[in-house]
Amino acid sequence: MEPQIQYCTTEDGVSIGYCLQGQGSPLLVCAESFDSFSLEYYLPIQAAFWEEVSRHHTLVRWDPSGIGVSQRNATYSIEARCSEIDAVLKHAGIRKSAVWAAGISAAWVMAYAATRPRRLSRLILYGAYADVPEVFGPDFITSFAMLWRTNPAMAAQTSADMANRDLYAEGALQLARIYRESISGEYAASVVEAAAQAVSVEQLGKIATPTLVIHRRADTIFPFVGGQTIASKIKGARFLPLDGDVHYYPFGDSRAVIDGILGFLDAPPSSSPARAAQANSLRTVLFTDIVGHTEMMQRLGDTKGRDVLREHERITRETLKQHGGAEVKTMGDGFMASFGSVTSAMECAIALQRAFAAHTAGTQGRMDAPSGPSPSLPEPLHVRVGLNAGEPIEEDGDLFGATVILASRIAAKAGAGEILIPEPVRHLLSGKAFTFSDRGEYEMKGFDDAVRLYEVRWHE
Question: How far apart are CA 378 and CA 375, in angstroms?
Fold first, then answer.
């Protein structure tokens, strides 16, 4: 669907184009570098990324001056960018918003957060940097700016290729096309030159907005240490390291990025200053995930799809409450919960599958009707569940650490209607009235040793 573009004007008289997408609390999405949201249809993988986020939050998509649908004959500066954010939020009637920024845009968004904290509710920085000269050096910056001035088409393709063309050749070509049509060579050169201005450590220290820093460990453009540095200088910032070597966020494991965004935005605000993370006693962590969620949303559309998700949330929350489970967070199509008892967690997992099975059984008429599915009957819900036990790290109501990561990995191995647990949890449940089936050993990403999994046979 073509974005419905609106226009606002900065105090300096610069015209800025933006659009609103989705529903929920606002998230201002800043362009990664030279890309216009209006040309996103050239890169379907990016459009799908933001479509998923927009199911949970109202996205404020906008083009900075000099780019895409905004005024082209403009002068780049960090202060100008800050003024443009003010204009967009004011025109959209948004008093306070969360903000996403990646790559080049992260520099001036950090400056905005340091000088206008009252306008921001949360800040998410992806693949960010604080000192470009330290990463590339002045000679590279000068040469790259010259390339934009003398051969914009080659510069656009070079910029896109840096996002890892070796693995995502088609995506790099699509991204280069967006760059070529979004920005002039001269303006891109001025942005490259201005990007050499480092964000001072003192400025990072002034940011008080709750912040999440996401960085891939082998980022091909901005080194991992850059994200670590930013997270360490912003008071109370959370750092989310991700595996992979691609810089551009829709490439690679984009699901992990989306989960990071939604988990951070939907987490309840801390009522006290950020406290040091600390280990807890033994906890059982449970993950759920709707099988075929993306296909369902595409088939039903946003409104009907959201109705199905609400039913999923109602069933899950009621079942968690009945079995003493604590909801940690929801990722839209799934939940993360914790239990003080492994037995209670297992009983809850079985109750969840039985509840969703009963719900789905009520959809049989929908599927068997000779004239097609009946809109008055509920939509089937097939859910996978994974559990793990250990001593996770707790901070501001969220859980972190190897225990949580492995629980998520285990859930991903389950099929529709299945419950999977690792061998240590199986031993903790010895003597209990549960039936198990050995599923063999699995290699889990990020873990050295193979993990033996067991399926919990809840039908019996």
Answer: 8
